[in-house]
Amino acid sequence: MDLRRLRAGEWIAALSGVALLVSLFLPWYGGGAEGDASGWEALAAVDIALALVAAFGVSLIVITASQSVPAVPIALSAIVTLVGLIGVVLVLIRVANLPGGFDSRAVGVWLGLVAAIGIVAGAALAMRDERLSPEGSHTDLTGRPTPAPPEIERVPAPRAE
């Protein structure tokens, strides 16, 4: 694992994935007869889907750090962007539609929405940024630092005789 390969997009997606998973344990709805309900209690199958979206967000940082070529992390970031968009839609539906017996939204649903948007933004940023290292430093295909390439010497074209 080489943490030097990680860029801002992977960190944003991973931290947002952790935040989405944490939000499922926080209260999503309040004012019900039984009191507050967490994401695990209030959501039927959506909670499992959101946990998978969170896992995809975290997997982006693990795959990027462990792969030696940039092709796999870039392809995975495209998949995570799509999965994250599905997560945003699922949370938006749960924001708009209160389950029966509840009359207010709690902090968990808002954190879940922000985290799902963060997964999409982080994965899109990781997909857009294909370089292996910050500008100005030179790396090989594995992301390890290398010396700067030699200057190109211009050679005049041969004359036709």
What does this molecule look like?
This protein has one domain. Helix content is 55%, strand content 7%. It has five helices and three strands; from the N terminus they run αββαααβα. It is elongated and about 95 Å long. The mean pLDDT is 82.
Quick description:
The chain is mostly helical.
The count of strands amounts to 3
Question: Looking at the structure, what is the overall shape?
Answer: elongated
Number of helices: 5
SSE-based structural type = mainly alpha
Residue windows where pLDDT falls under 50 for at least 5 positions: none
Largest sheet: 3 strands, antiparallel
Helix content: 55-70%
Q: Tell me the strand percentage band.
A: 5-15%
Rg (C-alpha, Å): 22 Å
Cα separation of the termini: 58 Å
User: What string, H for helix and E for strand, traces the elements in order?
Assistant: HEEHHHEH
Largest sheet strand order: 2-1-3
* Tally of individual domains: 1
Which whole number gives the mean pLDDT? 82
SSE layout and pairing:
Blueprint: H1 8-23, E1 27-32, E2 35-38, H2 39-42, H3 46-66, H4 71-96, E3 104-105, H5 107-128
Antiparallel strand pairs: 1-2, 1-3
Helix pairs in contact: 1-3, 1-5, 3-4, 4-5
